[in-house]
Design a protein that fits this description.
This protein has 80 residues and is an all-alpha fold. The protein is built from three helices and no strands.
Length: 80
Amino acid sequence: MNIFIPLFLGVAIGYLFKEKLRMNLDKPLSATLLLLIFFMGVEAGRVEIDAASILIISITFAALTITGSLAFSLLLGGRR
């Protein structure tokens, strides 16, 4: 499903009718956002993952990223 078509259509309608459309969309947008977050959580809950493996890989990646950044900064700037 292409999400850009409704997005551009909404932008065009909003631009063309910006003076004529005076409605408060705060509550419908909040409800839609909460439904979107809820369904994203439902979909995430359906996925079976090995949490321990992902945790170890994430910690390793973070440590290597920090180490690489420090090494690169020392290589370029040195200690002062």
